[in-house]
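Protein modeling request. Please complete all fields; requests missing the sequence field cannot be processed.
Requester role: graduate student
Desired output: 3D structure, token encoding
Chains: 1
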Amino acid sequence: MPRRSKDRVPDLGGFEDLLSEDACLDDDRMLDGLTTKQLGNVGEAIAALYLKERGYDILERNYRCHEGEADLIALDTVEGVIVLVEVKTRRVRHLDDDEYPEEAVNDKKRRRYRRIAANYLMDRFPVPAIRFDVVAVSVASGHLAGIRHMVGAFDWEAEP
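Delivered output (160 residues):
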């Protein structure tokens, strides 16, 4: 069973420099005005900062191979494992809404992540161990973000 933790990040202020140029937030622009891609970039920036604050080293962002893309690749310095992180971001009206962005990580996406991990192993051998985590970011008005981190959300074995 994956471990879960839930935290709130109080403000998006300061995340602008973590985003790419085309996804930058202007002070006068509301989150509702962001495209899906821009919102995803905000979520990835929040997830990266969240993981860094918890002792992870971010090794790569948007790792690409012919199988697809992993949002974040990090080193869990406590457990000594490489972590492929799928970040799912959603807009919500209130942080208490029953929105679960992580539900979008379906069997197809898990299979794709396993293939991406196999490519990463070939590219970066030797790798001590690999784990698959999901970070769900719910962004509400007022620049608040709710975060759920599913540690070991799935493994190498396909689900029945």
